[in-house]
Amino acid sequence: LVRMNENLPVTGDILPDLISAIECNFQPTTDYNMRSASYMLIESVKESNQCLEIGFRMLDICFSIYVQQCGLQFILHAIRTKWPSLPPVVQQLSKDRLINCLLSSPANNDIRSTPAIMEGFAQCIVAIVECDWPQKWKSFIEDCRSISKIGPSQAMVVLSVIGRLIEDVMEFELIEDPSRNKELRTVVLDSASQFFDLTLEMIKQSNAGEIPPSGAESSVRQRMLEKSYHLLNSLIASLNPRPHLFTKFVDKILEPARDAFKSGNIPVAEIAISCLESVFPRKASAKNYKPVVIFFESGRLNFAYDFIMMISLLPFDQQNYTLLKAATHLFFDIATCFCSFWELFEIEDCIDNWDSIFRLMLSLLKHPSTYCRMWCSLIFNSMKNCKKVYKIERFAPILTELFKYIPKATLKNGEPSKAVEPFRAYAKFDYETNAAFLIDYHRKFCLLFPCAFARSETLVVDSGLREACEVFVGDWVASNWRRAYSVVMGWLDEILKNPAEASSDECFMTTAKVIHVVLDSLVDVIEDVKKTEYTIIQAKVDAVMNALQNCQVVNAVQVLVSTLSSLFPILDVSDPRIPGILCKLISSLTLGIDDPEMAEVRHHFTYLFIKMATVHQAHLIAHIELIWKEISAVAGQLSDHQKCAVVEGLFALCKLFKNFEQYAQLMSVTLQQTVEFWASAEIMTAVSKPENFLIYIGLGDSLTNNDSLNLAYHTRRKQFSFHVKILHSVISRLEVPTEIEDAKTGGFCITDVQGNLRICHPAAELFQMMFPTLFTFLRCLKGIYSVSSLKVVHATYDKAKLFDLTDAEKSAVMGKPHETKKFKDMQRQEVFYEKMKLFLAELSDHLQHLLIRCVFAFDWQFFALPNAASYVEHGIFGDLENLMDYRLRLFLRRVITPLSNSTTEVQSYFVNGLAKLVEHLNDRLIARWHLIMKKENACEFDDEQTKQQIFTENVVSLLTRELALFLRSLLLQQDPEKPRATPKAVELPEFNSSAMDTDANDEQTSSSNALSFLGKSLLQREVNCYASLVSLLLNMLSWRESVAAFHISQVAGLAILEAVEFCFIFLYILTKHYFQLQSNGILDEESFKHAYAFILGAMPQQCLNPEFVGRLYDLAVQLYEHFRNIYPNAAQTVLLQTTECSLGDLQAFDKKILNALENPDFKSCNKVTLKVKRDWFKSLIKKFLKPLKTHQVRQIFGELPPLQRPSPQPFFTSSISPNTLPNLFQES
């Protein structure tokens, strides 16, 4: 310690003391002071000039594993820090000593065959390779080949060397110097063939010879074999950026995979599966797919198809499950890749793959594992653009068999029973419970395949399987309707023989669903059907009507009515059977009116009526008087939900008339009571304040069991729900002609006071009578969550439960599938709380959606109202501070689409409200982010606090993501060539990360690099929200999402990506508008420094995402260039303070930028110039990013275990007695 503290040179005689210190460090019983002293000695040797020499001396095989491991760390440290400064002779000598030490390792030495020691040798060799290859070590690959032939241990070191080299250079780009990394990347790709050959040689070497006599040697060979296949997988993955190279290595890839499948070695087969999966590209493009054509030609993948088939036929038990799952994933990758490839090329030599794919799909759909069937069914979505293959006659038999099995494939859904999954397969091996599997399935598949799962956040988990199968059914009918028609007619005949008996079959409902889909799909080929099958269809209609006369079984009635609704569109409009069918369908709306169990069936019939009114209008419009008469007869027995649905269907029918007067007449009949309701003094008083409303619906009185009082309050709540929903039904289906000629013909046009011809909305006059009450009510509903409003709620209510999110909303926040609770299984008080939460949530959502639709649908008529500005500012944008985060997210979603699709004239009315919204969002989200970070830093949590924190983070992530979408749509000018979304569409398309590609050229993004009208308006000084807007954007840019730690990183990742993508473009635009901003005094030097510091601060958060951090580099360089002359030292000051780069490096960077600005070749912002400038910037800040990057990188081949660094405690030398020092460094 005295010698160390005086910084005296370390001498050779310190080795015994050093070895004692290492052994002491790894003893569990060593106390803190002894461990600290030993650690300090080890560190002093590591930093000394003799580090390399002492490290080699510590590799003597007589030393323990800890000593040899520490010696390898000394060597590695010396190579990484001092190698360039060593004389060439010393470099060559050190390299030779390292290899000789490896070659001289005895085969039976347990320490040298330890993975930690072998990995240490590999790390040291890789460090030399990254410095010397290929210039100073041209024989590197041949040396690797020679070393690998010595024995299995040496071969595994070689495998680690190549694997680590590929990771460092190709995957993680860990070489500090970008130009050196680029050079090594080129050399690695050029040497790929030799690496493949070397890997295949080691695979054969590990399989060669007789079975080893000892278990230890057998284990070493198995490890070598597995590691060889891991390296093969890394080699294949390294070629993905250049898929054209696959054509050179197709046999070298398939041969070892074939051997692995034949070997019966399950671990090796699983790795070989990963190798094949790495071949098939993830991004769908002709550039990526064309090189893999060779894999599908000449039956090259037949061995893989045979292997997957064999695995699917194995007994379904715990031993085979892992391999079954891997094989299913491989099949999914192969099939989806082939579907995309076939869509582009349709090469005849590859057509045989379809037969294997269809047969495997049938086999996997028959498998008892729900997991396999779910993955397999998703292939149907990839096949939707390959419909031509359905017409090929040779595939007709297998496709027919596949079609016939669809009812059974979609039967077993959801959580499996023990009879189906006897050992809870996908719960035992991957998840704690079956429910955990279903939750994971919901998260993964809903995000990856929204086309199969729709865009609902609360959908049933197994709906994806059914909908994916229905995609196939519809496509097959469109391509080969005769076969499907023949099959379903046979099924229908079996049902019609005895509907009651048929309904007892377990596949009855799924078979009926397939029949329904097929018959609906026949409408697309209706002319061909009518030519040959019309009389049969008529006979089937008569048979269904007769069966309905005597059928009493609920399921059978439901199926027969559904079948009838699918058959009648095939009939001619003038067919005399249609009136009877319509009467039967409408009368079914009241079937079992007194039976609560029949409610779902009646709702299904209501859905069928809306479907007929919207899809098959030609058949209904001729019988409109009959429909009105029948509906009037049963109207009194309909539920509120059914009434709204029937009104929706009637307005959908009326659009065929295109007549203003008919719309007005229908509204006056259907909405008379609703107008009177909202105009009544009682309701106007009730909705005037949140306190009045809460009292009016019964929350001001105590919780009671008085049935009559509860019924009175329940009736009031039902009235509010009904009168909002019916208005929503009308406005959602009422369509106004957009063409002037059609509008004039239908009487929709008037001439305003300026003489302009205007299109009138037929609902505007009626709705504006209710607007004062409705907009007041909208603001009232936002205010019920305020502290003052909650005071009027009676003390007998649990306010936390009463005003909480609904269970469906909570499930959506946590990414879980929502399971509807049955009220009969709940206590009465819990039922009340749940119903009240649903009432308030649905009422708020419907009213908000209704009024936003009205504003944009009525257009000029709305803004001509005297109180229009007040409606927008106080009704729509008022009291947002009282909304919960989740509801605020829904508000943003509902406003965004109609606002971005509206005209400039309409948008001008929203500027002030949007400015208030931006300021509020800035205050709210920054507070939420700070709260999350503060809680993260807390040391202690109980289970309840942890759950609440996870929930809060999820809600904030959802809100952040939605806000990013909102701002991007709000502030960026839309591409005029792209079609605008319809005002009805509330959901938004997912963010496409390919738009963030660092190689995207300016032409691709130029259409988005312009501020919209609202973007320019919000930048005006008078609006006074610019500071909040930029603060919000910059904070979003640098926000670190912690939810990744709680396994929901998919949602968090999307939130950051969308926020980052917008900020890139927005700030780029900001630089273009600089002079305007500066003249207004908005962006001064301090503001620019603040913004630039935010951008630099975001880089460490994104350093492991090369695409996005690349855009950050580009943005930082562009801002540096733009503001260099305006604020000469601003960016430089921020760089010196934030990134800790040296002044000399910064001056060199500045000189390069100056030369580039003066060089005409650099004035065009193409990919080449951007790449050069980005490399300059990366070199400047490499020290800023390196610690975080190297700390977070996950390497496949692992790291050496570090020395046991003592915990951070104060060290006092006086606490160590002089008498204990000699014993501290003695041999133990």
UniProtKB/TrEMBL annotation:
Leader sequence residues: none
GO cellular component, one term: RNA nuclear export complex
GO terms assigned for molecular function: nuclear export signal receptor activity; RNA binding
SUPFAM superfamilies xrefs: ARM repeat
GO biological process assignments: protein export from nucleus; RNA export from nucleus
InterPro entries: ARM-like, ARM-type_fold, Exportin-1/Importin-b-like, XPO1/5
Chain segments annotated as transmembrane: none
Pfam families documented for this protein: Xpo1
Source taxon at top rank: Eukaryota
Exportin-1/Importin-beta-like domain residues: 116-236
PANTHER family named in the record: EXPORTIN 1/5, EXPORTIN-5
Protein's recorded name: Exportin-5
Organism: Trichinella britovi
